[in-house]
């Protein structure tokens, strides 16, 4: 079916007024016909009126009039075949009939939602991640959406920052690979296909490093760190042809990203030669006034365009100010032409000049609503995102014939909340969302009993439900506790200063533990939480994140062993907030602690161990994996040779399982100091019980490169530790010499 649409769409190409010209020629021709106001109009994006994803300045009637006058280039938060058609019809009343672009935050699924992005990252499964975005794109495109504001490729080392849920965690390499998989998934066979949406690498740049983890806060960092840690996922996205970029709310070393010439003009559009367009973040052009970087709307618009922002999302300053700025000679007309040209290019590439309504199709929309194949995939993806943190005494997997199971905790019967933050799909039907209770109930044997008690709310001090929960636990053979943070406690503007279980959840857990019943604790969250008491006292713990539409089924698949969990943490889990920022790839310092508990005149806290509670890359399985000694193809290499690192991993336990084999390196001495470990490769391998797999990695000097004190990106001769293992702490190491 899809194939037919694709062919039809392309057979229509070339039939418009522009004939067989190249896209560049078409854009030039169109620009030559446009007034300055019309060009500025292309650079304007408004939000629809039904819901907003930021502080909206509503004036719906005026917006509709502006669309008719060709003064709007794009809308966000307008979706659905019918609604997009209605808006597009208004644009077709304008003088040049330039179609609108419809953007939307399709962040972790659209109609079918998948785990929150950090949970997806915990799968370390690039194939699943790409497939999930393929599905999201297919569903969203069928709802008339042309463009998603994703992937967010911000590296984040601070779990207080609520938006860690939207990214891939603390590591640059992992985050880059995941970002690329997402772009591939969204853009599919290429812009113009009816099942592809334009992707958007955001937030450019360094948004994830907000001081104190407080959203929208300033970023202050060395250029070297910016280049080494925060920019690589963006550079890779640009090289991979991501259609658009979005800049960020923060200032970087005193200059707002939105007007940052170094970031957007020198790097992105200069050195990286990026040809797509840059949209501002919501209102971020206007916010340069409170930042103290522009005195009024006029100056904000001037700084933003000179700084490389092509489209103004909801600041409402480009429309009024750009024409004035050009007329007054404060902005050269060529910058407006360049920005409008970049936007028009995408509209041509999407085929919108051939048929502005080609994405808005009721029939396709219906087909992509409640798609069972997508749900099936969501169930698998959910189960593969779960991380098993502890399984003392092999409590898990549970037998389906346990006589009485008690599910206790505020998340047991949640439904819509399973979507997690950032799920903006149309809420116009009752797409079934599987609760944990239903998922477990469906898999328990018919002769078994599932009891339930809520126990408490997520965020208040009410203990009145404790007694009932304790009584319920007493009747059970095993208790499944479901605790965590509410789905809207992580996400945009959801920074937290303390990241434990909120409200009285931990007190409830302690009360239930007093019953002496075996407990499996499931933690639902969009970020790493701190839960030391539980980690030390509860025998089995799974980290579930928020898993999306099929959450309950995914969870039950893991609890009862249909799926053996293989997720690994994409962020370090701290012991206390005082350790934050905490990340595995830190420098050694001049006084490193030799042990975790060493305190005296070493780089440590006097009141805290150095290591995290759970390290980056950590996650258990129901089975056991044994690593053979790793083998290096050579201990001394020269120039552009390739080092092969191999290891045999054996599944010695009782279940088939998946293991993520991780490869780290350390450059022992450098022109600038190098991290104690850097992830350079990983492979997720499925190994049947009793079987072994040889896993092989290749390293070349490309993998040894780093930014030196003058921002040269190169490698140096020297000694390197090659480390391979099951998480960032548990590795085997061999040393090599590599000379130029
Ligand atoms: C967020 C962006 C998002 C935009 C549009 C902003 O507040 O920072 O990530 O794409 O709103 O919803």
UniProtKB/TrEMBL annotation:
Catalytic activity: Hydrolysis of terminal, non-reducing beta-D-glucosyl residues with release of beta-D-glucose
Entry GO MF terms: beta-glucosidase activity
Keyword Signal tagged: yes
InterPro entries according to UniProt: Cellulose_Degrad_GH3, Fn3-like, GH, Glyco_hydro_3_AS, Glyco_hydro_3_C, Glyco_hydro_3_C_sf, Glyco_hydro_3_N, Glyco_hydro_3_N_sf
Keyword Lipid metabolism (UniProt): no
Biological process, per Gene Ontology: glucan catabolic process
Domain Fibronectin type III-like positions: 659-728
UniProt keywords, alphabetically: Glycosidase, Hydrolase, Signal
EC number of the protein: 3.2.1.21
Record-stated family: Belongs to the glycosyl hydrolase 3 family.
Identification of the protein by name: beta-glucosidase
Organism placement in taxonomy: Bacteria, Pseudomonadati, Bacteroidota, Flavobacteriia, Flavobacteriales
């Amino acid at each position: 079916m899809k194939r037919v649409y694709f062919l039809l769409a392309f057979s229509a190409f070339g039939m418009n007024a522009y004939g067989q010209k190249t896209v560049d020629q078409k854009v030039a021709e169109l620009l030559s016909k446009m007034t300055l106001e019309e060009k500025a109009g292309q650079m304007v994006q408004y939000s629809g009126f039904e819901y907003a994803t930021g502080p909206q300045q509503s004036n719906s009637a005026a917006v509709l009039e502006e669309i008719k006058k060709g003064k709007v280039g794009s809308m966000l938060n307008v979706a659905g075949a019918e609604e997009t058609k209605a808006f597009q019809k208004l644009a077709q009343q304008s003088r040049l009939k330039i179609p609108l672009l419809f953007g939307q935050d399709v962040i972790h699924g659209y109609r079918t939602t998948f785990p929150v992005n950090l949970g997806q990252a915990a799968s370390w499964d690039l194939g699943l991640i790409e497939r999930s975005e393929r599905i999201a794109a297919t569903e969203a495109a069928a709802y008339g959406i042309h463009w998603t504001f994703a992937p967010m490729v911000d590296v984040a080392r601070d779990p207080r920052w609520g938006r860690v849920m939207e990214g891939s965690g603390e590591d640059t390499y992992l985050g880059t690979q995941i970002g690329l998989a997402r772009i591939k998934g969204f853009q599919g066979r290429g812009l113009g296909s009816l099942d592809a949406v334009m992707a958007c690498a955001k937030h450019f740049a360094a948004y994830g490093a907000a001081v104190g983890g407080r959203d929208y806060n300033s970023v202050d960092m060395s250029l070297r760190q910016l280049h080494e840690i925060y920019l690589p996922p963006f550079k890779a996205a640009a090289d991979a042809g991501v259609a658009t970029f979005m800049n960020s709310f923060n200032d970087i070393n005193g200059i707002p990203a939105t007007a940052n010439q170094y970031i957007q003009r020198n790097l992105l559009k200069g050195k990286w030669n990026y040809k797509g367009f840059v949209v501002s973040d919501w209102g971020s052009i206007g916010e340069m006034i409170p930042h103290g970087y522009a005195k009024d709307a006029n100056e904000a618009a001037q700084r933003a365009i000179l700084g490389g922002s092509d489209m103004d999302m909801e600041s409402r300053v480009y429309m009024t100010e750009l024409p004035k700025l050009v007329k007054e000679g404060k902005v050269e007309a060529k910058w407006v032409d360049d920005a409008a040209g970049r936007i028009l290019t995408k509209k041509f590439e999407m085929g919108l000049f051939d048929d502005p309504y080609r994405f808005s199709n009721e029939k396709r929309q219906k087909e992509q609503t409640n798609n069972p194949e997508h749900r099936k995939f969501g169930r698998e993806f959910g189960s593969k995102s779960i991380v098993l943190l502890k399984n003392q005494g092999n409590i898990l997997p549970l037998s389906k014939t346990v006589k009485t199971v008690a599910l206790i905790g505020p998340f047991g019967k949640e439904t819509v909340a399973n979507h997690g933050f950032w799920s903006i799909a149309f809420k116009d039907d009752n797409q079934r969302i599987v609760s944990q209770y239903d998922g477990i109930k469906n898999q328990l044997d018919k002769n078994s009993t599932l009891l339930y008690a809520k126990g408490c709310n997520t965020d208040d001090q009410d203990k009145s439900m404790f007694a009932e929960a304790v009584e319920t636990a007493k009747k059970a053979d095993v208790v499944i506790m479901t605790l965590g943070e509410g789905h809207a406690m992580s996400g945009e503007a959801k920074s937290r200063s303390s990241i434990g279980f909120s409200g009285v959840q931990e007190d409830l857990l302690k009360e239930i533990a007093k019953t002496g019943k075996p407990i499996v604790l499931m933690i639902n969250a969009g970020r790493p939480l701190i839960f030391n008491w539980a980690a030390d006292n509860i025998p089995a713990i799974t980290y579930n994140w928020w898993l999306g539409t099929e959450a309950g089924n995914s969870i039950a698949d893991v609890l009862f062993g249909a799926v053996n969990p293989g997720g690994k943490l994409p962020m370090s889990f701290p012991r206390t907030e005082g350790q934050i920022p905490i990340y595995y790839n830190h420098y050694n310092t001049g006084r490193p602690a030799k042990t975790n508990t060493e305190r005296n005149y070493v780089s440590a806290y006097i009141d805290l161990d150095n290591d995290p509670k759970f390290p980056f890359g950590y996650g258990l399985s129901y089975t056991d994996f044994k690593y053979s000694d790793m083998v290096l193809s050579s201990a001394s290499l020269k120039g552009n040779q390739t080092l092969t690192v191999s290891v045999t991993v054996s599944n010695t336990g009782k279940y088939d399982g998946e293991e993520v084999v991780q490869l780290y390196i350390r450059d022992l001495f450098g022109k600038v100091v190098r991290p104690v470990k850097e992830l350079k490769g990983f492979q997720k391998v499925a190994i049947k019980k009793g079987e072994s797999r040889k896993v092989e990695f290749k390293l070349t000097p490309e993998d040894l490169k780093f930014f030196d004190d003058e921002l040269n990106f190169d490698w140096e001769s020297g000694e390197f530790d090659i480390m391979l293992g099951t998480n960032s702490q548990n590795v085997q190491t061999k040393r090599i010499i590599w000379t130029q």
